[in-house]
């Protein structure tokens, strides 16, 4: 049998039982993911809603969950009907961190050679805007996931924290970078060095989240915001998102140059002409994403 | 006649009717789109009021040209120490002039460096305080953010609604707003076009003070007077240093700051200021 096995060509793909089943399931409305729920929402199904769904583990971000998340994101990115995405968790927890059991026995060599956490970056490469609707705990990797999104709406009972220090490590998915840029040095240092939590109200005041809603209505409000964004031209929205993100990647002068080039580029689109003409003619614009 | 015209030297200047009249009027005379005058106890404050009320101060080419002319004149006026830029009670500036932009092509924009003349405000050495009553939308919001300080009236509203017109901010809106209010709120504003109130803007760090509508401009002038009572050359260095925080890393910015700080010791005003402090008297700065 061993000899026969050697004769078989080494196949990758469906003939070999997949290590993680969810990666092989076709995405379709209603198809079963194991760790997430993904569906379209909004009046014209222009919003992709992804709900992290690992409630017994408070949505701890295991490898399988991130893979499914990436798959759903990719599908929504390629869906010409979807204009914006909402990412949420449960009422009690958005995501209470990475999966510590998965990390517990890793060595430095494992991390470095296997680019540990690299697949988390997919979310940051999305052209379409992603709104994080955070109810409950956004801890560690959960907080980092929310901060990778473009907009954060928080439920009244949301709590944010980077408690990695209590586990003898540090944030590894942008926590020290995005948190500091959002809330300033003093609060970021305090959170990262003590592991203390901040409330939704603290987070809004500090600039981490832009709106707070009651727990029951948070996701609906986020979907409404996503619908508003999705009603604009997708190509222009992508340029606007790119421009805002550039503020964290270059100096003000260089960022302003990039913004100007993107701004000039909008004049090469039909949607810019349609948008301004509609404004002058006092009518609603009819964008075509071209 | 045509032959004679050829013999005349090609003259630029008043002999050719100017394309835009306002560019040729001497300062102090009538601008078409703005009002410019000196204010404050010793006329140390230059006040520029955008004055195109029927268009809610929509920022047409002519207005920006006049604004630049007034800024330049105040910059060169050795009596003026700081400038206040304001609009009407109802609108600071409700945006760029869409009719001027409607039919532009990408080629027009790129070849003619569309919006480049807006940058003059960012090159001023003297501080500019934006006193924003009412709407600061699109280009109006960007203009306010180019200023060094923003004071808002209680009814002020800020927005970057370019997305609703199928375009994006083109005069620094995505850059300055994000640095001021953080990613979540900036993304929300830029991608939805939604407005924020003066109170939101203060909480988010975009404006530093809020005043009643009626007293806003006076308060801004008082702040400008306070600034103007300091040494102009040192004020220029302080402004340059703060702006450097957005142009380089902390380490490099601190190096620049230190060099500017050392440079203050080459000035008379630094010596006068510290001596006055030690002698418990008022400093008498000479801008040297």
UniProtKB/TrEMBL annotation, chain A:
- State its location(s): Mitochondrion matrix
A Gene Ontology biological process noted in the UniProt record is: fatty acid beta-oxidation
User: Which Gene Ontology cellular component terms are annotated?
Assistant: mitochondrial matrix
Write down the EC number: 4.2.1.17, 5.3.3.8
SUPFAM superfamilies named among the record's database cross-references: ClpP/crotonase
User: Which GO-annotated molecular functions does the record name?
Assistant: delta(3)-delta(2)-enoyl-CoA isomerase activity; enoyl-CoA hydratase activity
Q: What pathway or pathways are given for this protein in its record? A: Lipid metabolism; fatty acid beta-oxidation
Q: Name one Pfam family in it.
A: ECH_1
List keywords of the entry alphabetically. Answer: Acetylation, Fatty acid metabolism, Isomerase, Lipid metabolism, Lyase, Mitochondrion, Transit peptide
Q: Which domain of life is it from?
A: Eukaryota
**Recorded catalytic activity of this chain's protein:** a (3S)-3-hydroxyacyl-CoA = a (2E)-enoyl-CoA + H2O; 3-hydroxyisovaleryl-CoA = 3-methylbut-2-enoyl-CoA + H2O; 2-methylpropenoyl-CoA + H2O = (S)-3-hydroxyisobutanoyl-CoA; 3-hydroxybutanoyl-CoA = (2E)-butenoyl-CoA + H2O
Could you say which protein family the record assigns here?
Belongs to the enoyl-CoA hydratase/isomerase family.
**What's the subunit arrangement here?**
Homohexamer; dimer of trimers.
Recorded protein name is Enoyl-CoA hydratase, mitochondrial
**Native organism:** Macaca fascicularis
Please spell out the taxonomic lineage of the organism that makes this protein: Eukaryota, Metazoa, Chordata, Craniata, Vertebrata
Automatic annotation (TrEMBL), chain B:
Which keywords fit this entry according to its UniProt record? Acetylation, Fatty acid metabolism, Isomerase, Lipid metabolism, Lyase, Mitochondrion, Transit peptide
Q: Name the major location.
A: mitochondrion
- What's the Enzyme Commission number for this chain? 4.2.1.17, 5.3.3.8
Q: In which pathway does it act?
A: Lipid metabolism; fatty acid beta-oxidation
This protein's source sits in the domain of life called Eukaryota
CDD domains with a match to the protein in the record = crotonase-like
Where found, per UniProt? Answer: Mitochondrion matrix
* Reactions catalysed: a (3S)-3-hydroxyacyl-CoA = a (2E)-enoyl-CoA + H2O; (3S)-hydroxydecanoyl-CoA = (2E)-decenoyl-CoA + H2O; (3S)-hydroxyhexanoyl-CoA = (2E)-hexenoyl-CoA + H2O; 2-methylpropenoyl-CoA + H2O = (S)-3-hydroxyisobutanoyl-CoA
Query: Which BP terms in the Gene Ontology apply to this protein?
Result: fatty acid beta-oxidation
Q: How does it assemble?
A: Homohexamer; dimer of trimers.
Question: Could you tell me what this protein is called?
Answer: Enoyl-CoA hydratase, mitochondrial
Q: Which organism is it from?
A: Macaca fascicularis
Gene that this polypeptide is encoded by:
ECHS1
């Amino acid at each position: 049998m061993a000899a026969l096995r050697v004769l078989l060509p080494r196949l990758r793909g469906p003939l070999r039982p997949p290590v993680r089943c969810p990666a092989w399931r076709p995405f379709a409305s209603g198809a079963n993911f194991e760790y997430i729920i993904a569906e379209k929402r909004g009046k014209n199904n222009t919003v992709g809603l992804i709900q992290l769904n690992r409630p017994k583990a408070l949505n701890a971000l295991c490898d399988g969950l991130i893979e499914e998340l990436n798959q759903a994101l990719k599908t929504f990115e390629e869906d010409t009907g979807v204009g914006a995405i909402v990412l949420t968790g449960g009422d009690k927890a958005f995501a209470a961190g990475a999966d510590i059991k998965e990390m517990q026995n890793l060595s430095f060599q494992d991390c470095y050679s296997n680019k540990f956490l690299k697949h988390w970056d997919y979310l940051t490469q999305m052209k379409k805007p992603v709104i994080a609707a955070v109810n409950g705990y956004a801890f560690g990797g959960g907080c980092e996931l929310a901060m990778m999104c473009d907009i954060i709406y928080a439920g009244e009972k949301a709590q944010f924290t980077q408690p990695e220090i209590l586990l003898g490590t540090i944030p590894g998915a942008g926590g020290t970078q995005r948190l500091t840029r959002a809330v300033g040095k003093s609060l970021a240092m305090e959170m990262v060095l003590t592991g203390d939590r901040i409330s939704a109200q603290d987070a809004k005041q500090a600039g981490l989240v832009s709106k707070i809603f009651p727990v029951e209505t948070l996701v609906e409000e986020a979907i409404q915001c996503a619908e508003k964004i999705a009603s604009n031209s997708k190509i222009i929205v992508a340029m606007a998102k790119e421009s805002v993100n550039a503020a964290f990647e270059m100096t003000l002068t260089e960022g302003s140059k990039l913004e100007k080039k993107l701004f000039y580029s909008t004049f090469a689109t039909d949607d810019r002409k349609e948008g301004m003409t509609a404004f002058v003619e006092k009518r609603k614009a009819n964008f075509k994403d071209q």
